[in-house]
From TrEMBL:
This is BASS family bile acid:Na+ symporter. It comes from Mycolicibacterium frederiksbergense. It comes from the Bacteria. Gene3D superfamilies: 1.20.1530.20. The chain crosses the membrane at residues 12-35, 42-65, 71-91, 98-120, 132-154, 166-187, 193-217, 251-273. Keywords: Membrane, Transmembrane, Transmembrane helix. Its main location: membrane. The keyword Membrane applies. Pfam families: SBF. It is a multi-pass membrane protein.
């Protein structure tokens, strides 16, 4: 039964990754993605926040709190992977600049594909990590569905409009299944995390990332960068973890960060909306 649940979780991850990125492509045009990225200073700050400061925060918390290596690797993977599709929804909830959120999310997602295979071996020495395999997996599961969605949106807008709600439904359901099946399949590992600093690390990491994005964003962009830096790309982290780390606690830790992200960022986005 446990093996069946784990297998179901692995399948749900694939559906979650592909449907999330396909849905983004079906919803946007290339122009919408590129327009907010014409501010070089803002782009540079966003990249520094997501690919320098966030990974360093995850790595620092891993060692500061003395997490077991699998939990630390799971936290680190979420720190390395940026550009979560859910950022667009958070920006809508926060009544923030959705166009900026769209451009930022796609930029971070694309760079994540090349960044994780290069950066991960620098942090996790002595671990058998296959950079080429990671890059190929992320390209197949994320960039190709994104490109297909953008192409359909540009060439067959009516078709894109009809299938977009179904793709969104698949994304939402598969995300729920990832969480439920991962917890059910690794129940002992999840319970074991309660005896560690795993949950505390996830909470502190999310707060730190909010602060990083808020500080570097500046007026007009701090809300989007705060949400965008804190909402890590769990989909990409799942792909990398599943192919390179056998210990189930790595996947469990990513799931913990995913849950903490949602529980903290949803009310935070509503707070931002009310503060306007």
């Amino acid at each position: 039964m446990t093996e069946l649940l784990i297998r179901g979780s692995d399948i749900a991850v694939v559906f979650f990754v592909v449907s999330s990125t396909l849905g983004v492509g079906l919803s946007l045009t290339v122009g919408q993605i590129l327009a907010p990225l014409k501010n070089p200073r803002l782009v540079a700050l966003a990249l520094a926040a997501n690919f320098v400061l966030a990974p360093l925060a995850a790595f620092g918390l891993w060692h500061l709190l003395g997490l077991d290596e699998p939990l630390g690797i799971g936290l680190l993977l979420t720190g390395l992977a940026a550009g979560a599709p859910f950022l667009i929804k958070l920006a809508e909830f926060a009544k923030a600049d959705v166009a900026l959120a769209v451009g930022l999310m796609v930029l971070l997602m694309v760079i994540t594909v090349g960044f994780v295979p290069v950066a991960l071996p620098l942090f996790v020495r002595g671990t058998a990590v296959n950079p080429a395999q990671i890059a190929v997996s992320l390209i197949v599961l994320m960039l190709i569905p994104l490109a297909v969605g953008l192409l359909l949106r540009a060439r067959l807008q009516g078709v894109a409009g009809r299938i977009r709600p179904a793709v969104g439904w698949v994304s939402n359901v598969s995300m729920i299944l990832v969480v439920v099946l991962t917890i059910a399949g690794h129940l002992k590992d999840v319970a074991a995390i309660f005896g560690t600093f795993g949950f505390l690390a996830a909470i502190v990491f999310t707060v730190v990332c909010i602060g990083i994005g808020w500080l570097v964003g500046g007026p007009g962009a701090r809300d989007v960068l705060a949400l965008g830096t804190a909402q890590r790309n769990a989909a990409a982290a799942f792909v990398v973890a599943g192919q390179n780390f056998a210990d189930a606690k790595v996947i469990v830790m990513i799931t913990v960060v995913l849950i903490v992200d949602f529980l903290m960022l949803l009310p935070f986005s509503r707070f931002l909306a009310r503060s306007r």
